[in-house]
Amino acid sequence: MKTLMKLVAGLVALVIVLIVAGGAILGIFFDPNEYKGEIENIALEKGGVELKIGGDIGWSVFPWLGLEIGQISVKYPNKPQLATLNKAQVSVRIPALLSGQVQMSSVVVDGLNLNLVQDGSTNNWAPAGSSDKADTPTEQPNAAETAGGTAIALDIDSIAVTNGNLSFEDKKAGSKALVKDLNLTTGKVQDDALFPLTLSFSAEQYANGSAQPAMTVSSKLDSNVRFNLAKQQYWAKKLNSSITVQGEATGGKPLTLTLAADITADAAKQAIALENLKVAIANLALSGKLAVNDFAKPAISGAVDVAPFDLQKLLGTLGQPAIETTDPNVLKAISLSTELGGPANTVTAKALTLKLDDTTFKGNAAFNLASGGIKLTLKGDSLNADRYMPPAKEQPAEAQQASTGERYSKEKIIPVEPLKGLNIDAALGLGKLHVSKLDIQNIDLVVSAHNGLIKASKINADMYQGTLRNSATLDVRKTPIRIAVKKDIKGIQVGDMLKAAADTDVLTGALNSQANITARGRSVYDIVHSLNGTTNVQMKDGELKGIDMAQTVCQGLNTVKSLGINTQEVDKSTPFANLSASTKIVNGVVNNPDLKAALDAMVLSGKGKVNLPKESLDYRVGLTIEQNLFNKTCSIPDSLEGVEFPVDCKGGFDTNPAELCKPDLAVFKNIFKAKAKAKVKAKVDAQKDKLKEKLGEKLGGEEGQKLLKGLFGR
Predict the structure, then answer these.
(1) Beta strand pairing status for 159-170 and 113-119?
(2) Which of 355-359, 447-451, 563-567 has the lowest mean pLDDT?
(3) Which residue range forms the structural domain that includes residue 584?
(4) Nearest CA to 217 among 179, 190, 185?
(5) Among 288, 553, 609, 659, which residue's Cβ finds the most Cβ atoms within 10 Å?
(6) Are residues 697 and 659 in the same domain?
(7) Distance between CA 175 and CA 167 in Å, rounded?
(8) Distance (Å, whole) CA 76 – CA 50
């Protein structure tokens, strides 16, 4: 847009040239209106600009050299209209000008209209065949100095820019922006002296060729302004401004932003400071101070305070939907305070305090302006996350049924490119966390993300007398991306955890678990099919409550009368000394060869595979009575000791549970056969004994006994 700026400056220069260079001479000898046509021709020949002067040119000479000109239009040949001007009026006091001062009466610019049109690679603000690229920078003289090195002393009674308009249209994109009713007025403008300034305008934005604006803007500003051109210093005292936006982005509601500050700027030192800063938007209010030194490598200092605000109310004002939470009283009091400072090219927030309702986070943050790197250290005291969770909603039955039949999605859910751009080092902590009804303490999370390698080197916490010590890595530098997770759980009391989470203590014991798992890919499908690793689970000194496994087994076996089992109901619990299992995962297939639990008088064992890609199960569970310790519950024959009673679980994940697992009846059949043979043999032996006894009575004597022995073999 440098060409455009040159053009606007040229319009101003035209007025000044007519006043200063030729005004006095023309005022004495010529009527400039007679030369309007010649002026237009010169503008075309020398500047390549079609200049039209529709109004009269008026002037005064001594002691004020003044010019008034109106009805000007400017355009490049064969291009849309660029600019029009209704009236410009200015006068300069000649004696002051001769002494190196610029002393003016009121400067008036009325009805300046700029019409900018972009059509593909062409526009209307540059001559044909030229480029609007920035020229090669050259060293410029100090704007506050004349050719002789003397500072210019300005003295202007007032400046008034009224009824200004700006239009920018991108025909290819079908977008348009309008700035309307631009008005600027000042009081007496003098060097190194305060003067009032007011500015107002409205704007409209159109998109996709629509005749209705997608957004409207109105703005007002007033301040007392002072400048020192020689020292390149500028002040804006008691600046107050407001901007109101309304459109699709605000939900059709008007949204007003206000800003108040005292501003000091030193161009020579490349420094700017804002004191008494106040910014407000809806119910969000910010106050503080801000200073920036060295614009090339900014060093920023100051302080910022955001007063407590209601986030839900703010979202409503912004035309955004409220955040659904279980507790409607959360997100009502959010505040922030911090001090700004640190090395050059870095925005550092020191002594950062963030309050979320009744939770307080404290720490530090830094943002590197050159690299975009973020460093964050933040620790909170206590947070009840359940209050912030969305309310539970019942899933429609149709949706539930549909979801059970779905296979793993191939949708790429990991955003690789945004992750590659992350440059973060964060250490986050929380003293207490209540989530999903669980109480977790001493949360310690350390995360880094650089060039596509995201590491959570610590995911640590304490809970229910045990510890979690986990880590994870996500590497998106290569294709396919790589995922690695390590987990170490020690001593978590499962009973206490279940009591808190589900209000049940059906299972107790100290849980230990380790896992080392890797995967590749961006979708759930890819991850499931590439799962590899190992896991181990141990549980000691536990108890399964609500069921006595020994009693249950006895009652089950007692249904078969031939087994000769007597039962008596007693305690409904099953203690166990140790439970352990390990798995090896290969490409999503989980192989467990060694499930074992030492129960009261029994051993529970299991082995098999879970095929995650195929969503199938092939697992065998066995229950073995190791010794007859059922004397309190029932008594069983010695023949059942050491016999495994197996259950086979085979099928898909969507198989009806009632049909998924079935006992191995062959084992029971063999037991029944053995018992039946034993029973028949016992009856035969009993009959033999009776017959022997009767025959013995009849035969009597030694010879009779020999005969019986021969008949019965004994």
Answers:
(1) parallel
(2) 563-567
(3) 531-663
(4) 179
(5) 553
(6) no
(7) 11
(8) 6
Tally of residues, the chain = 714
Whole-number Å distance between alpha carbons of 637 and 441: 52
Dist. CA 35–CA 316, nearest whole Å? 62
Indicate whether this model's pTM tops 0.85. Answer: no
Q: Which residues of 534-561 are buried (b: 16+ CB within 10 A; e: fewer)?
A: ebebbbeebbbbeebbbbebbeebeeee
Instruction: For residue 348, give the amino acid letter.
Output: T
Sequence letter at residue 333:
A
Question: Based on the domain organization, do 554 and 636 belong to the same domain?
Answer: yes
Label residue 282 left, alpha or beta by phi (over 0 means left) and psi (-120 to 50 means alpha).
left
Give me the pLDDT at residue 387, please. 96
Residues 565 and 654 grouped into a single domain = yes
- Other beta carbons less than 10 A from residue 682's beta carbon: 10
Q: Can you spell out the DSSP letters for 248-306? A: GGGTTS-EEEEEEEEEEEETTTTEEEEEEEEEEETTEEEEEEEEEE-SSS-EEEEEEEE
Which residues, 6+ apart, have CB-to-CB distance to 63 below 8 Å? Answer: 93, 94, 95
- Considering the domain architecture, whether residues 547 and 623 belong to the same structural domain is answered as yes
349: nearest Cα among 300, 409, 315, 397: 300
Q: 425-434 burial by CB neighbour count: b if 16+ within 10 A, else e?
A: bbbbbbeebe
Residue 282 is assigned to a structural domain of this protein: no
Residue 695 placed within a domain: yes
Domain contains 700:
yes
Residue 145 pLDDT grade (very low, low, confident, very high; cuts 50, 70, 90): very low
Residue 432 host element (H or E): strand 423-435
**Residue 235 pLDDT greater than 70, yes or no:** yes
pLDDT reading at 19 higher than 70: no
pLDDT per residue over 429-487, tens digit each?
999 999 999 999 999 999 999 999 999 999 999 999 999 999 999 999 999 999 999 99
In this prediction, residue 204 carries a pLDDT of 95
Last residue of a domain, one of 663, 687, 702: 663
In the three-class reduction of DSSP (H, G, I as helix; E, B as strand; rest coil), residue 677 is classed as: helix
Beta bridge pairs of residue 635: 566
The string over 128-153, giving b where at least 16 C-beta atoms fall within 10 Å of a residue's C-beta and e elsewhere, is: eeeeeeeeeeeeeeeebeeeeeeeeb
Same domain, 655 and 689: no
Res 542: pLDDT: 84
Q: Indicate whether 573 and 695 sit together in one domain.
A: no
What are the helix and strand counts (H, E) for the chain? 13, 38
- Closest C-alpha to 651, from 623, 621, 619, 613: 619
Question: What are phi and psi for residue 704, nearest 5 degrees?
Answer: -65, -40
**In a domain? residue 456:** no
Count of structural domains, the chain:
2
Tell me the C-alpha to C-alpha distance, in Å, between residue 457 and each of 431, 443, 445, 460. Answer: 19, 13, 8, 9
DSSP assignment string, 124-152: SSS-TT---SPPPP-----TTB-TTSPBP
**156 in Cβ contact with 189 (< 8 Å):** yes
